[in-house]
Amino acid sequence: MTDIIADGDGLRVLVSPKRGSAFERRFDQVALATGHQWPKEPEVRPGYFLSPWPAGALQRVPATNVGIRGSSLTAIDAAVALDVAHGTFIETQGDKIGYRANAGGDLLHMTIMSRKGMLPEADFHHPVPCEPLAICTAEAIDRLIDTECDTLLDSSYRLFKRGLAHADPDYAARIGLDGLALEDFADRYFAERADVDPFVWADANLAEARSNYELGVTVPWRYAILRMHEVLARIVPHLDPDALDRFGRFLKPVFVDEYATVPHLSIERLLALHRAGHLDVSALGEDYRVDSHGAEPGATVIIDGERRHFPVFIDATGQRPLAADRFPFRSLLEQGVVPDAAEDDPEEPKGIAVDEGFHPVSDEPAAARIHCLSMPFILGRHPFIQGITSSHEMGGIVGSDLARAVAEQTPGRGAGGYAMKLFAIYVGGEHPEAHIEIHDVRFVVAASIRDIYDQLRAEWWGTPGTLHVDCWAEIDHADGFDVSLRPQRPSGKKKLYFVNLGGYDGLGFAEQHNNMFVVATPVADAKAQALRSIAGWTDAHRDDLYEAEKAFALDTMIGDRFHIHLTPNAERRPPRFTCRYTPLR
């Protein structure tokens, strides 16, 4: 695939195969799952490897002094690949793994480098399938997100602390969790390991992990952090740049440490290499630099002014977030279908912003036809998506959305292909303390207007037996936008508002009213836009104004959760409503 072009109600995919002529195909929906983006040749300069993949490229590395930046499983795999090229691991049942170098292989020495100078911990035992969380749940985090408050990160951290203390009170007391500020949590979490030689710690941790597997023992605090990082990840797309930076510095390292534990065999091999004198670990700290542009091959690492040269240097820190300008499908960028997340705000993380359905955040209608799972470009706002669990969840979300898109084209389905619709109903009736008929507007989500009647009767506060419907409308278009309900959160900034306007025309003995739906970004624009529609009234004013999602109480629905989506439609049309006296006795 060389390009994708939004064209009317579809997408043109351009393909240049290795063999044969170039061609293009047209699709209704496209899912982009292009995976990691590595250079075809990892040795971008003599002795300097921008990535360890493909691993076969490391086979040509000579037995020399090798620096490896990173300490995750990627770095471990790189170290093992080098060692297998220059020696053999000796595995005898009942004994510790050993390592024997080939002829000339004694010259191989590797240094794994990371900021903290620690090795990852061994996989630990925990129940499968996972047990439900008690306090820091997805529902609780979603409620915090819905408040759209400026303190989302701090509120979520307080919820995280409550969940951790509930899961393991002894651990919480040992680390002084109750008094730990967000900025101090990671330091306290790593403090005990920081004081111990990394290989001594790895040996003890491996022994503990093995014993726990044999006995079926789960360490509560480890399991709680592992589970809660999955729900805390939900807040990341909603954080402002400052909060995102704090999350990345003070919570993300802990979460990565828990979910990136490695197989026991990997730890055994690291210990064997260290015992054989082929492997060390070094702490880079925060103030370091890697110079790969010197006259000599490889790279020089500068730590606090001290220089150390490695004839071979491998960057094994894994995939980094990529800016949108590296996105391979240029036409989607030029058309604004896939916009640069940092275009309007340089402080935003680089890459492409996506909504909860993994559609690009764009007001262009074609964005609803694209699911962007291209990991390097969404990694900035979704830092934990590289694992198998996340891949499974993303596949489920996109698969369900594609199934709904297919259903949308099936005859007999409702507007937008979704069974549930938005209805605004103007009701009237008598009240024992009123001299004239009273009226109200009710907002209901249902499959049809008749499904609403029982709910209206249950909510009626007036004289029993007098309730009736005067007018009703299905809200499927407003202010130049098609309106639909979908499970995913919307990607655009515009919102739908209901406005009830009041004023006087000098002709009737009553205040006149006008009810309307408008589309705007800030609420002040919605009010101003609505007032312009009644410029001929005297003392025109807003009586009531509601954001539609709140008016329809979408956040309190039982069962499926829906959100209002707005799609621009050049064919603006006036609201369609039915006015007919319909008693609901």
Question: What labels would you give this structure?
Answer:
585 residues; FAD/NAD(P)-binding domain; 4 domains; 4-stranded antiparallel beta sheet; 16 helices; 29% helix; 24% strand; elongated
Structure description:
The protein is α+β, with helices and mostly antiparallel strands. The chain folds into 4 domains: 96 residues, no CATH class; 123 residues, FAD/NAD(P)-binding domain (3-Layer(bba) Sandwich); 122 residues, no CATH class; 168 residues, Ubiquitin-like (UB roll), CATH 3.10.20.10. The chain is 29% helix and 24% strand. It has 16 helices and 26 strands. The chain has a 6-stranded mixed β-sheet with strand order 5-6-15-7-10-11. The protein has a 4-stranded antiparallel β-sheet with strand order 18-17-19-26, with no helix packed on it. Strand 17 and strand 18 form a beta hairpin. The longest helix has 21 residues. It is elongated, with a radius of gyration of 30 Å.
Structure summary:
29% of the residues lie in helices and 24% in strands. It is α+β, with helices and mostly antiparallel strands and 585 residues long.
Fraction of residues in H or I helices: 25-40%
The top-level CATH class of the largest domain is Alpha Beta
Shape descriptor reads: elongated
Strand content: 15-25%
Largest sheet: 6 strands, mixed
Secondary-structure content class: alpha+beta
